[in-house]
Design goal:
By secondary structure, the protein is mainly α. Helices cover 79% and strands 0% of the residues. It has 2 domains: 13-103, Serine Threonine Protein Phosphatase 5, Tetratricopeptide repeat; 105-164, Tetratricopeptide repeat domain (Serine Threonine Protein Phosphatase 5, Tetratricopeptide repeat, Alpha Horseshoe). The N and C termini lie far apart (79 Å).
């Protein structure tokens, strides 16, 4: 019996979700040797690299997935995350904005966009993005926490600028 490529993808996903990243990576690389234009495989390899802290490699892999499927908002959002961690904040923002253009009520992309804007001191835009994410998922404690920190920082900055 010949295994189908899809069964290998399923096995790689199962290994990834069970935390067996080495097995998942080996299966994905095997699949890509047979067919290098598999967006899901590139994306998953990028996520594995991200989990290992190899953010530039993660960005390269996920960028290849985006090149194959440019209308995939999840790929764009995850590319933004890898770029943000790699220090490419403006590029991360562009990818989060693309993800949101593709899926306007995408809470993870909005929350990440808020973090990215805060990193470059565009605090009003950061607040707007966090509030938009909270509107969609009001139970997300992490987004509330990030917004609270942002508002606290903005308050401290206003106080500091008001002092002689």
């Amino acid at each position: 019996m010949v295994k189908s490529p899809q069964s290998d993808v399923d096995r790689a996903l199962e290994a990834y979700h069970s935390g067996n990243l080495g097995t998942a990576e080996r299966l994905l690389k095997k699949l890509l040797r047979r067919n290098p234009v598999q967006a899901d495989c590139r994306h998953l390899l990028g996520l594995i690299a991200f989990q290992h802290g190899y953010f530039k490699n993660a960005a390269r892999q996920i960028d290849q997935a985006v090149a194959i499927e440019p209308e995939n908002p999840t790929f764009c959002c995850n590319l933004g995350a890898a770029l943000l961690e790699a220090g490419a904040t403006r590029e991360a923002i562009a990818n989060y904005e693309k993800a949101i253009a593709l899926r306007p009520r995408y809470p993870q992309a909005l929350a990440n966009l808020g973090l990215a804007y805060a990193r470059i001191d565009e605090l009003a835009k950061a607040e707007e993005a966090h509030r938009a994410a909270i509107e969609i998922v009001p139970e997300d404690a992490a987004v509330h926490f990030n917004l609270a920190n942002l508002l606290s920082d903005r308050c401290l900055l206003r106080r500091a600028s008001a002092q002689p």
